[in-house]
Each structure stands twice: as C-alpha cells, then as structure tokens.
Design goal:
It is built from 14 helices and twelve strands. The protein is α/β, with parallel strands linked by helices and 365 residues long. α1 packs parallel to α8 and α4 packs antiparallel against α5. The two termini are 24 Å apart.
Length: 365
C-alpha cells in the first residue's frame, strides 16, 4: 500500500503548482485566482527509492516496480469554509477521504501573486485553515453526540466508548485544539478514525519558499517549523517553482540542475520521506529475475498481513517468510550469498516486518 495525501491550504499559496510538479502533469490548473481548482485532482506518483535499483541489479530483475503514492489536490479553503463559504462544503468532504494532509503555506513574498487576505503571514494562514477544520469537526461531533446519548443510555458498550471519546474530543476542540492532540489509548484509534474528523488527520506543513530559499529556508519557514515542532507535526521546505521546472526536464539533467540551485535532492523525495515518517510506514521488497518490487505497509505489520498486501491467498495460507535484511542482501551479493552466509532468516506469523526487508513468502494453496 501507499498512502493518499491531500494537498490543502489557502488559495494562491502554490498547491496546484506543487501538485503539477509532483505528478508531472498539467491536470490541475495553476492560476492566480481563488477556486481555480473546483474538483479534487488525483495523481499517482512512483515513490523514489534508490534501494530498488541496487536490488534489481543483484537479482538481475527484468523490471523495477516502485510503490505508489497518491496526491489529491484540494481547492483552497477560505475563512467561512465550515459554513459553506467559497465552495467550502465540497472541499471539506474531499479532505475526509485522505490519510494525511500536506498543508501548503505561503512563505514567499511577491506582489505578482495575490494573497487572498492581503498579507504574508504563514502562521495566521495556518490558523485560518485549522479554525475552519475545527469548526467543521465541532458541528459534526455535536450532531453525533445528541443521537449517541440515547444509544449509550441503553448500555450499548460501543456507544458508551464512542460517547466518551466524542466528549473528550469536543472539549479539546472547544478549547481551540485539533482532534489529533487528543490523548487516547491504542484501542481507541479505530474509533477515532471512524469519526472522520478533519483535525484528527496527521499534518505535514509544506513551506513554499522562493527559489533563493529552497535550500536553507527563510524567516517565514522557520516560524512554521517551530510551530510544527510544538505540535508534533512534520515540516518540509520546498520551492514549488523549482519543482515545476524540474518536472519539465529530462531525468538525466535534473541532478545538475539541483546541484546548481544548491539542492541535494528534489522536493518530492523530502516530501515522501516526511510523509512516511508522519504515517509510520515501512517498505519491504520482493526481488527475483522477473521483477524487483517495493511494497509499503504500516509499521508494526506482521508477516502474514504483509504477504496479504501481495495477494490474499498468501495471507490465508501463510507458512513462513524467508527474510533478508537489505544491508545483508547487498553485502552478500544477493539472495544466494545471503543464504550461504546464514543471513537468510525463516520468520513466522508473529514476525514484525522491518523497513528494508527482502522477503519471499511460503504459503499453502
């Protein structure tokens, strides 16, 4: 699995420019006016992972199949979106369909791009968007709470647990804090996800800076980074303009261009790594003559469930997983060398998949 990341923010902060660059398409119109994106645009991109090339060379694979990441470009929110302002209702509904949000924040100056509120203040922008999301969550929970009270009074255990969670979430939201800050037990995670709260989604702040600040950031991005640290959110600095230029270049020329502007890698790579860390995802590999493929699962996934990502039959008939750590696979020159060196492990149903594992699943038909 990959994950679905919604790109949100105020109008004219660079969301669609970033989306176009990341997906290397012109599917989303990037224009200097609000609401140029009316319907959410969806784009799949390959997750870059240099380990794939190394594994494919050692396994003499005919092809490489990376895992995929889905970006959803969601139109700009404005003050009053929770009450339907600026097409707010359909935009808020689109956010509920994603696993995490990349909140693009304007961290550049320039009169040629109009700011919807007439000023450059990334923290105020973040608070405008977050307030609208919290108001939408409040309205949603208040409606649910009324109906749930009757069910809880009947002694329904699930209703009692949900009622308690909603009460705590409402208290937090009324205090001006997002639902993701809610202290909860591991067994409450599923209940919280089921509530579909916008502010419960993990957040990655994407600071859109001008070209000169792409490598070092600026005073605006540093303020956003400080806020991200205080709330346990992710934060990356990207120049959407640079990313859009890279997207139009032949792959062979991108390295030289990045070096010329003082960057070691493209913004997409940083964004994906930050997103993976945010959602606690890990990658395992399968490698053979036919193909080397990357697979993504949540951290903590056990071997049978990882096998099920490949095919449901693998999970149902799981026997064991032949597992080699990526470093051992490379150091030993491939599977045969790792087996000979005693680095191939036979793992059972309780094995928790580690990032970089090269796996071959044995199963009964």
């Amino acid at each position: 699995m990959g994950f679905k990341c919604g790109i949100i923010g105020l109008p004219n902060v660079g969301k669609s420019t970033l989306f176009n660059a990341l997906t290397e398409t012109a599917a989303a119109q990037a224009a200097n006016y609000p609401f140029c994106t009316i319907e959410p645009n969806v784009g799949d991109v390959a997750v870059p992972d240099p380990r794939l090339t190394v594994l494919a060379r050692l396994a003499q694979s005919a092809q490489i199949v990376p895992t995929r990441l889905t970006f959803v470009d969601i139109a700009g929110l404005v003050r009053g979106a929770s009450k339907g302002e600026g097409l707010g209702n359909q935009f808020l509904a689109a956010i509920r369909e994603v696993d995490a949000v990349a909140h693009v924040v304007r961290c550049f100056e320039g009169a040629d791009v109009t700011h919807v509120e007439g000023r450059i203040d990334p923290i105020a922008d973040i608070e405008t968007v977050e307030t609208e999301l919290m108001l939408a969550d409040l309205e949603s929970l208040e409606r649910r709470a009324e109906a749930l009270e009757k069910k809880a009074k009947s002694g329904d255990k699930e209703a009692l647990g949900t009622r308690d969670l909603i009460r705590r979430a409402l208290a937090l939201l009324r205090a001006g804090r997002p639902a993701r800050a809610l202290e909860r037990k591991p067994e409450e995670e599923k209940l919280l996800r089921g509530l579909g709260l916008l502010t419960a989604l993990p957040v990655l702040y994407v600071c859109n800076v001008d070209e000169g600040a792409a490598g070092t950031g600026n005073v605006f991005s540093r303020r956003v980074a400080e806020r991200a640290r205080s709330e346990g959110a992710g934060c990356v600095v990207i120049s959407a303009k640079i990313e859009s230029e890279i997207a139009l270049m032949p792959a062979a020329e991108r390295g030289d261009y990045l070096a010329a502007v003082g960057l070691a890698e493209a913004g997409l790579d940083r964004l994906i790594r930050a997103g993976y860390a945010l959602l606690r995802l890990v990658t395992f590999f399968t490698a053979g003559p036919k193909e080397t493929r990357a697979w993504t699962v949540p951290a903590g996934t056990r071997a049978p469930q990882a096998a099920g990502i490949i095919h449901s039959d693998f999970e149902r008939g799981f026997i064991r997983a032949e597992t080699i750590a990526y470093e051992d696979y490379v150091a030993c020159g491939g599977e045969a060398g790792a087996r000979e060196a005693g680095k191939l492990r036979l793992e059972g149903k309780d094995y928790v998949v580690a990032d970089g594992d090269v796996m071959h699943f044995r199963f009964a038909t």
